Amino acid sequence: MYQIAIKPRNEYDHWRALSNYWMLSPKAKQRLEWMIFYYSIGQKSVKATTDYFGISRKTFWKWKGRFNPKIIQSLEEKSKAPKTRRTWQVTDIEEKRVIELRTKYLKYGKKKLKILYQGLYKENISTWKIERVVRKHNLYPDPEEHKKSVRRLKRRVLRPKVRLHEFKKILPDITLWHTDSVLIWWYGQRRIIFTAIEDSTKLAFARVYQSGSSRQATDFLQRLVYLTNGKLKIIHSDNGSEFAGEFEKACFALGISQVYSRARTPKDNPSLERFNWTIQDEWLSMSEVGLDDIQEANLDLTAWLIEYNSVRPHQTLDYQTPLSYAQTYKPEVLPMTP
After folding, report:
1. Cα–Cα separations (whole angstroms), residue 245 to 28, 217, 222, 241
2. Residues 6+ apart with CB under 8 A from 37
């Protein structure tokens, strides 16, 4: 890995932080590394940059021309949507008829309204025209909820989630932590166990909480960062609300990139799914403390985690412990010591 000169370091770290905040795709982040190398180690040499990354000059000049440090999303692919879009083609009489039908049948979708329209007026009308009228006059059963859904959609477009399977194709040898939350009802009391495991070494961490809010998830993240001595740079989670909000802000502040599972795809996280089962089978079912008192539960859980990481042989690691495996094959994951 190349070293960045000390003087412009803050500027380049700021670019990387912006790329994490706006959740740039892995390809866009790779293009950002081209720019950082070009302006730092490459000393603005196109040849040095293209030789180092194995890309053509044409490709580099294309993205350098687009790159704007103030708009970091400029390194994403441009939209391929058509430049010429359809304009308003609804006549006044069609608009009036659609408004009357939609007002009367507020819960009917545009396809059903189209059938009613054709049967009532003996004229053809497209579902696109019906949709335009509904949108123009805000003819929704719950207008406020519709506005919220539109805002959510816009956020997803501006900050698309990077999915784990895409990320691993580009960076297969990354140090990656998976995290999840397990809901347990303990004699009528709600308890949440946040869990985390490192992808290759199987080093694991967990902690019991009273709720599963993003604030509690943030506390768990900060403890995990401390245990890894700040070496946690990429974290994978599902699409739960506990991993948004304050958790998302904390990841940005700590310079941690977030990647997400595909919807309804538990096989994206098999190691942690297994650990979630193990923690209930080997710790909770055998614990004399249980989950009544959270502080005592965490002390008991910590003792078990020390055993899990430094004593318990793991079949997937050829019967080594996670700590001994990490010391041998992946020392950059340490120091998480017993």
Report:
1. 24, 10, 15, 7
2. 2, 48, 49, 52, 53
Coil, helix or strand at residue 205: strand
Q: Could you tell me the CA-to-CA distances from 210 to 14, 53, 246, 289 in Å, in that order?
A: 36, 48, 17, 16
d(CA 273, CA 181): 10
Query: Which pLDDT does position 143 carry in this prediction?
Result: 79
Distance CA 320, CA 92 (A): 76
Residue 333 · residue 317 · CB < 8 Å: no
Distance CA 323, CA 318 (A): 13
Among the listed residues 160, 215, 217, 204, the one whose alpha carbon sits nearest the alpha carbon of residue 178: 204
Residues 6 or more apart whose Cβ sits within 8 Å of residue 112? 105
Instruction: Kindly report, residue by residue over 16-51, the tens digit of the pLDDT.
Output: 888 888 888 999 999 999 999 999 888 899 998 998
Rounded CA-CA distance 310/55 in Å is: 44
Going by their DSSP bridges, the two strands 177-186 and 189-198 should be labelled as antiparallel
